[in-house]
Design goal:
- It holds the Pfam family Carboxyl_trans.
- Belongs to the AccD/PCCB family.
- This protein folds into two domains: about 50 residues, no CATH class; about 220 residues, 2-enoyl-CoA Hydratase, Chain A, domain 1 (Alpha-Beta Complex), CATH 3.90.226.10.
- It is about 35% helix and about 15% strand.
- The protein is built from nine helices and nine strands.
- The chain has a seven-stranded mixed sheet with strand order 3-4-5-6-7-8-9, with helices on both faces. A two-stranded antiparallel sheet has the order 1-2.
- The model has no long low-confidence stretch (mean pLDDT about 95).
- Bound molecules: zinc ion (ZN).
- Zinc ion binds next to loops.
C-alpha cells in the first residue's frame, strides 16, 4: 500500500497559489456541525445559516464586507518588521516573519485602508490572526498610528477591527511601546473631534485589549467573541478559583459594562455607518 504514503514531507502551497474554492463546495460549521454551501456561507457574511456561528475571518473578508464594491486604497501595504532584538526562539525572528509572509501572503498582522462605506469614506485598520497570532509588534503599531494620522488629515472616521493574542513576544519592549503610541494617536483623533469605533472580534486579548481596542467612542463586539486581558487558565491558576460560566465571552463582557453593544456581522456595515454619521 506504499502508494498511499506521502513520500515528500512538508509540501506547502503559498496563499497566492491556492485556488479559491469554487461554488458548490461545502462548509461545515465548527459549532453546530451542519453543512452549508460555501457560497451561501460567504453571502451570509461568513456566519452559519443554522446557528449564526461567526467564522473567524481576516482583513480580506472584512474589507470586502465593509467597503462599497470592495473599493479601497491600502495604506503602507509593504511595511515589514525589522529584528531590533536579534530574537531567536525555535527559529530566528526574521526567518519566522519570512515564513509567515510566504504562508499567508500578508506582510504583518494588520492591514490599513480607506474607502467608501455606504458612500461615507472611512479609514479602517483590520487585524489578521493568521499572522503570528495577530500579535502586535512595531509594524502593527506604526500602521495603526499612520492610519489614524490619515483619518485626521482627511477628516474621516476611524474603524479598528481587532483580533489578537496580544503583544509580539519577539519584539518585547518595542511591542509594549505600541500601546502608548496608538493610544496617544487616538487622543489626537479625539481632539480633532473625529469618531472612533472599535470592533472586537474573536479573540481580542492581551496588550490590544489594554490599549486601542478598548478606547473607542463605541466599543462593540461580534457575538461570542473571546475578549479579555489574560487567558482564563492563567487567571484560574492565579486566583485559585473556578471562573463563572461564559467568562470572557462578548456577552459576559457586555453585561459587565465593558462593551456598548454586540453586533451581528450581517448588520455590521449598516450599523457602523449610521453610528459614524451620528457622531460626525
Ligand atoms: Zn452552525
Amino acid at each position: 500500500m506504499s502508494w498511499f504514503v506521502r513520500k515528500d514531507k512538508g509540501i506547502q502551497t503559498p496563499t497566492e497559489m491556492k485556488r479559491e474554492a469554487p461554488d458548490g463546495l461545502w462548509y461545515q460549521c465548527p459549532n453546530c456541525k451542519k453543512i452549508m454551501n460555501t457560497r451561501e456561507h460567504k453571502l451570509n457574511a461568513y456566519t452559519c445559516v443554522h446557528c449564526n456561528y461567526h467564522e473567524k475571518i481576516g482583513s480580506d473578508a472584512y474589507f470586502s464586507l465593509l467597503f462599497d464594491e470592495n473599493e479601497f486604497t491600502e495604506l503602507d501595504a509593504n511595511m515589514q518588521s525589522a529584528d531590533p532584538l536579534k530574537f531567536v526562539d525555535t527559529k530566528a525572528y526574521p526567518d519566522r516573519v519570512k515564513a509567515t509572509i510566504a504562508k499567508t501572503g500578508l506582510k504583518d498582522a494588520v492591514r490599513t485602508a480607506y474607502g467608501p462605506m455606504n458612500g461615507l469614506v472611512v479609514t479602517a485598520a483590520v487585524m489578521d490572526f493568521n499572522f503570528i497570532g495577530g500579535s502586535m509588534g512595531s509594524v502593527v503599531g506604526e500602521k495603526i498610528a499612520r492610519a489614524i494620522d490619515h483619518a485626521i488629515e482627511n477628516r474621516t472616521p476611524f474603524l479598528m477591527v481587532s483580533k489578537s493574542g496580544g503583544a509580539r513576544m519577539m519584539e518585547a519592549g518595542f511591542s509594549l511601546m505600541q500601546m502608548a503610541k496608538t493610544s496617544a494617536k487616538l487622543a489626537l483623533l479625539d481632539k480633532a473631534k473625529l469618531p472612533y469605533v472599535s470592533l472586537l472580534t474573536d479573540p481580542t486579548t492581551g496588550g490590544v485589549t489594554a490599549s486601542y481596542a478598548m478606547l473607542g467612542d463605541f466599543n462593540i463586539a461580534e457575538p461570542e467573541a473571546l475578549i479579555g486581558f489574560a487567558g482564563p487558565r492563567v487567571i484560574r491558576e492565579t486566583i485559585g478559583k473556578d471562573l463563572p460560566k461564559g467568562f470572557q465571552s462578548a456577552e459576559f463582557v457586555l453585561e459587565h459594562g465593558f462593551l456598548d453593544f454586540i453586533v451581528d456581522r450581517k448588520d455590521l456595515k449598516d450599523k457602523l455607518v449610521s453610528l459614524f454619521r451620528m457622531l460626525l
